[in-house]
Amino acid sequence: MADFYDEIFTSADTLKYFVKGEWKVSKSGKTVSNWNPSTDELAYKVQACTTSEVDEAFESAKAAQRSWARLPLWKRAEYLHKVDGLMKVNAQPMADCLVKEVAKGAKDSVTEVIRSGDLAAYTAEEGIRWLGEGKLLLSDSFPGQERSKLCLAQKVPLGVVLAIPPFNYPVNLAISKVAPALMAGNTVVLKPPTQGAAAAAHMVQCFAKAGLPSGVVSYVTGKGSEIGDYLTTHPLVNCVSFTGGDTGIAICRKSGMVPVQMELGGKDACIVCEDADLDLAAANIIKGGYSYSGQRCTAVKLVLVMESVADELVAKVKAGVDKLSVGRPEDNATITPVISKSSADFIEGLVKNAEDKGAKLLQAYKRKGNLIWPLLIDNVTRDMRLAWEEPFGPVIPVVRVKTIEEAVDHCNANNLALQGCVFTRNVDAAIAISDAMETGTVQVNSAPARGPDHFPFQGFRDSGMGSQGIKNSLVMMTKDKSTVINLAKPSYTMG
């Protein structure tokens, strides 16, 4: 397996970038460091691509796109199936990168790679089904018209898609953008996060080894502060698919006429009703809030619980939190170091603000470097930052409410509205609460989650724009084209 990936490296810790079907070293002579969150030691170095190298990536993508779009659907699907197979056969080195550069647990890292291969394969099949369908419109279906025109409507690609995934799922959220883009006939320029760039490079090598034509997939790296705006405002970009934080809002404002697909984080609220199965709710809060140290856009980030059951629920959650394993990702600990010192400092600031204003920490606050021990914080009130801001760490605030209306109002007052969940045994209440929650997805009796990957996935307000999920991404990365056939009036009449 090592030989499969050898050509993506210049040395044991330095990666190349990929353009025109070749792995290259930047003419800048510079690299950007990628640090191991667990040890604070250098994990990898990636190329600091120049703007001219970014130009080369887009120009090669543009040049390759027309011929790629003319490939039969079955052939594009065949490539994606090859990628699926290569990712699964060569999964372990890719998963090892995730452990090393984003501190993801070893088992979860392998799962991310396998899931991403499955996503590529499903996209191939869904693409054949959906893109293979056309539509015929007859002119005489409109008042006053004769049957003199036939309109043939079809889906065609947008062109060149810029894909920017986040650090926490640098393989899965890259594939969720790249696979639909390619199946729809687009070409792709991928800009990975620096933390996660090594795993993304391994993934791109699977596309390269699958035999995709030169220019169909490119991979460029560098500091977002240096090439970010240049990438997102490049004149050859026809679509931007971005997952991340506030940067996405700035991209939207600068994108002009370019379609955008944005997922920008969330403050996922969990509403626990009086009649809820509290054991079920507690188990989902623990799993949903603390897996991968809470560094998931769909993590439970706020519990809104009815006062009458709050003591019992909090006791159950605390008991589970106290049993969570804390340590190294190599050992599959549930709580591993967060991605960076700045992230850990931000989380600590939220905790301190809540504690200073009277919230009750149910575990002693403990931090070692980027490793923060899991915290359940009770009696959080609306004047605390934790009631509104996304910690992206192993911290869950609990707000006690008197009514369900109060809980829903709190959820709807937040500018972040990606997902939420409600726990109740009453299906009528579940539907009513879901209808009232102004958030992209509401889970009933389960923690928020992105998958399965073919489900629609979207955020409201500052949590995003457009909808994801395999089918929705195919829709978003295509446009309608009509061919109208004007029929000559027949010289004979049908008797």
TrEMBL record:
EC number: 1.2.1.9
Active-site residues annotated for this sequence: E263
Catalytic activity field: D-glyceraldehyde 3-phosphate + NADP(+) + H2O = (2R)-3-phosphoglycerate + NADPH + 2 H(+)
A Gene Ontology cellular-component term: cytoplasm
Class of this enzyme: oxidoreductase
Pfam families reported in the protein's UniProt record: Aldedh (PF00171)
Family to which the UniProt record says this protein belongs: Belongs to the aldehyde dehydrogenase family.
Protein's organism: Elliptochloris bilobata
A single GO molecular function term of this UniProt record: glyceraldehyde-3-phosphate dehydrogenase (NADP+) (non-phosphorylating) activity
Keywords for the protein's UniProt record, in alphabetical order: Cytoplasm, NADP, Oxidoreductase
Compartment annotation: Cytoplasm
Entry protein name: NADP-dependent glyceraldehyde-3-phosphate dehydrogenase
Domain Aldehyde dehydrogenase: 25-482
UniProt xrefs under InterPro entries: Ald_DH/histidinol_DH, Ald_DH_C, Ald_DH_CS_CYS, Ald_DH_CS_GLU, Ald_DH_N, Aldehyde_DH_dom, ALDH-related_metabolic_enz
